[in-house]
């Protein structure tokens, strides 16, 4: 320790190293307000400083946990007293926006929403969007391969990153700052750092793929009688709005009822339908797109796929519809409530949810299970409340949620990652040879096991 | 050899091993009709057989070159007498098409066009498309991260593969046959096998991402006065057709004139414009989309971005426009003609091409340089004809084409890969640490250097 701290200070300056009470004034995460404990927190100002810090840590065998916006939900940024925290909070620059090539070059500490807003000034659009937009960072989005609400049209973060700069465990800088949609000059090394949760390198800069800003936004909430209709309507809208459908968010009845209880959100339609969908389409022509959207909805209702629909007449009405989907505090204020993020093919979803609900009801008759999902992405979120007890019950809920996924080829993590929380279940989604290959990559690229050690899997 | 062949026969059957004159009756590639020479060609029927073959080769230290459709253009499938060819030609099944999840599970030997046509029967669409569609295989498309004409909207092959099965050098089967858009359960191992040209594993099956079949297709050829207009019009059409523009193919004047010489294609408009673009949009509503497309084109002409436009009135007229872009035999029948595939940011393209043309004109005053490109992807193709000589002149052309890319952050391969042909220039697009990391991956995953050895880089 006596060796580490002064050397860190000599690399990043006195302001760049946080220890003691200054450190404890920081929270562990967005969700966990308890004081942060670690050997120190280091705040480099450049890729070169990150490289020097890592080289030093490599020499000293010092493990490192990288911190971004700390909005992750799988204990991917948990730190022990022996670990050093590396924060990208002083690397937040938006270095360049190219309106012709439609790219943005940003430092990893930049907050997602800041990037979204900066590109709008150039009539461009960065489509990654998720609830944590105001806090999460581009580096964290890369490291966790963030998903969110627009994946159905624009893909995950992986599809939105053209180039990347990262620092490896020994301090080597891998700069692959490609700006083109097409580049097959050798291995696509950036893939090593996308979605690997900081275990193979620390992302320092990225080249993001932008789109022209859409000129029209059409939103609706519809009610449906069955999951079959939910799946049919998705296909129907995809076809009718070819390429324009950007979000298709499904809420099961229990979820909808919970968040529209008195004191929470106003229900814009009856509260007893089995399913609700919030959908959105982005296009180019306000008038023509609105007409096309309306015609598609009318057809959906005439054919019986949808049984009710609400179209917002103002931005605030639109925001109110989205709030029902995005603000689930009515659910999470109950303790304990366990949040899940799984994926499986759409054809199995209905059966899967029925099975989970049956198991949970048998286990905890007074419990609740609230479901919503980006079904076009194969992605469901479940909130499980046993109705009593505490976090000790988590493993039992895990079993009911994760075990039935196996037979459907599902995944224990759709978009949240693995961190520490899901580590014990990773093997149910991945085969032994896959696990071995992951470990081989980790041992090869981080032979001293210094980068976010223990996260995703144990070596 | 005496040991290898009988053991191969015992794995794949007598029909599965081709040697001697049967082997020599095969051509080296789509482009090179000379007889194939190799130790043998093995044709496994299943992933398990591929695994057994690789395990055997690993024991014997036998190097392997994988063959797909053999339409590659960078000497990525060249075989020496000491090497074994592994062909996926008996693994061509389309195993499953899921219209709800919009996925297809196919074996790696399936031909791209066969897959395209099979999914159409389910009103679905597989958007990867390139000139070699009738011969190239899905495995080859994965191994080379194929691009083509629809990347601007749908991405490269990498973006169209949800899951993958591959066999590693020691015979280990890595089965990551994910079917969901979202799956963050650990490292995304399939990335190791996409675009690595068969050097890290042999792809045996894939889960492909499909789209709903578009109901409308609008095509136009336009003429433009400057590259600035070409770049402006791309942005303009992207905005006006938000999400519907699927192709934007640019031809420089020399290219257009060469392929519309008497005896070749009929020019649908004047032949003296500096630039021509073939563009296409796919949508959902034949009437509304056609109107929107027409309005956008009219605006483009009124504002001066485009100076002439032709809209095909029939499928055969549409095909005739596309043939100008896709059939460049008028150029390649001249020997020698060197084909290039580079990428660089759009903002630098005009200057780059002028520079290349100047260098080439100085070097070979009687030579020609024909340029076309998927500029939205950053991708240009150049055909360089010195006007005399033979393939010995290739290195000189390489220098004029590749060297100026360096200062623009360009790439010596946009979509064709590296193979043997571009190996010497890879270092101009990638840094030393990147090259070291590629070698580290290769040494780790293929420690005996048996999979397509020497391709992309030398160890």
Question: Widest sheet of chain A: strand order?
Answer: 15-12-14-13-17-18-16
Please state the CA-atom Rg of chain A, rounded to the nearest Å: 23 Å
Seen as an oligomer or otherwise, the chain set is homodimer
Count of alpha/pi helices of chain A: 16
Largest interface in this structure: A-B, 98 and 98 residues
Q: Average pLDDT of chain A, to the nearest integer?
A: 97
Shape of chain A: globular
Distance N to C terminus of chain A: 25 Å
- Fraction of residues in β-strands of chain A: 15-25%
Decide which structural class fits the backbone of chain A.
alpha+beta
Point out poorly predicted stretches of chain A: none
Q: Please report the total strand number of chain A as a whole number.
A: 18
State the major sheet of chain A. Answer: 7 strands, antiparallel
Question: Fraction of residues of chain A in helices?
Answer: 25-40%
Q: What does this protein structure show overall?
A:
Two copies of one chain form a homodimer. Helices cover 33% and strands 21% of the residues of chain A. The first copy, chain A, is an alpha+beta fold and 459 residues long. Chain A has a seven-stranded antiparallel β-sheet with strand order 15-12-14-13-17-18-16, with helices on both faces. In chain A, strands 5-6-10-8-9 form a five-stranded antiparallel β-sheet. In chain A, strands 1-2-4-3 form a four-stranded mixed β-sheet. In chain A, α8 (227-240) packs antiparallel against α10. The radius of gyration of chain A is 23 Å and the shape is globular. The first copy, chain A, starts with a helix and ends in a 14-residue tail after the last helix. The mean pLDDT of chain A is 97.
């Amino acid at each position: 320790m006596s060796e580490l701290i002064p050397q860190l200070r000599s690399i990043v300056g006195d302001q760049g190293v946080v220890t003691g009470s200054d450190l404890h004034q920081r929270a562990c995460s967005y969700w966990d307000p308890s004081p942060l404990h670690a050997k120190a927190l280091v705040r480099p100002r450049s890729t070169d400083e990150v490289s020097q810090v890592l080289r030093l840590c490599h020499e000293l065998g010092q493990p490192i946990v990288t911190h971004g916006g700390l909005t992750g939900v799988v204990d991917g940024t948990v730190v022990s007293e022996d670990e050093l925290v590396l924060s990208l909070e002083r690397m937040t620059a938006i270095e360049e926006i190219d309106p012709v090539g439609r790219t943005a070059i940003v430092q990893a500490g930049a907050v997602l929403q800041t990037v979204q807003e900066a590109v709008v000034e150039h009539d461009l659009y960065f489509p990654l969007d998720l609830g944590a937009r105001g806090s999460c960072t581009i580096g964290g989005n890369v490291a966790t391969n963030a998903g969110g609400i627009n994946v159905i049209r624009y893909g995950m973060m992986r599809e939105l990153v053209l180039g990347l700069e990262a620092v490896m465990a020994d301090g080597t800088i891998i700069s692959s700052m490609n700006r083109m949609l097409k580049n097959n000059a050798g291995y696509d090394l950036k893939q090593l750092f996308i979605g690997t949760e900081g275990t193979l390198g620390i992302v320092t800069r990225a080249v993001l793929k932008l789109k022209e800003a859409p000129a029209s936004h059409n939103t609706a909430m519809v009610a449906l009688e069955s999951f079959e209709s939910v799946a049919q309507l998705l296909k129907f809208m995809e076809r009718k709005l070819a390429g324009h459908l950007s979000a298709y968010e499904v809420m099961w009845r229990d979820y909808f009822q919970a968040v529209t209880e008195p004191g929470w959100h106003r229900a814009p339609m009856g509260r007893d339908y089995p399913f609700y969908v919030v959908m959105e389409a982005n296009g180019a022509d306000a008038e023509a797109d609105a007409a096309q959207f309306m015609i598609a909805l009318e057809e959906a209702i005439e054919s019986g796929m949808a049984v009710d629909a609400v179209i917002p007449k103002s931005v605030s009405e639109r925001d109110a519809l989205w709030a029902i989907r995005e603000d689930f505090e009515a659910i999470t204020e109950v303790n304990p409530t366990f949040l899940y993020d799984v994926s499986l093919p759409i054809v199995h979803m209905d059966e899967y949810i029925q099975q989970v609900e049956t198991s949970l009801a048998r286990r905890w008759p007074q419990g609740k299970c609230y479901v919503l999902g980006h079904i076009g992405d194969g992605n469901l979120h479940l909130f499980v409340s046993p109705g009593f007890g505490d976090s000790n019950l988590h493993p039992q809920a895990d079993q009911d949620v994760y075990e039935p996924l196996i037979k459907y080829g599902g995944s224990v993590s759709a978009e949240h990652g693995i961190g520490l929380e899901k580590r014990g279940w990773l093997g149910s989604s991945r085969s032994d040879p896959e696990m071995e290959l992951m470990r081989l990559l980790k041992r090869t690229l981080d032979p001293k096991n210094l980068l976010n050690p223990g996260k995703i899997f144990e070596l």
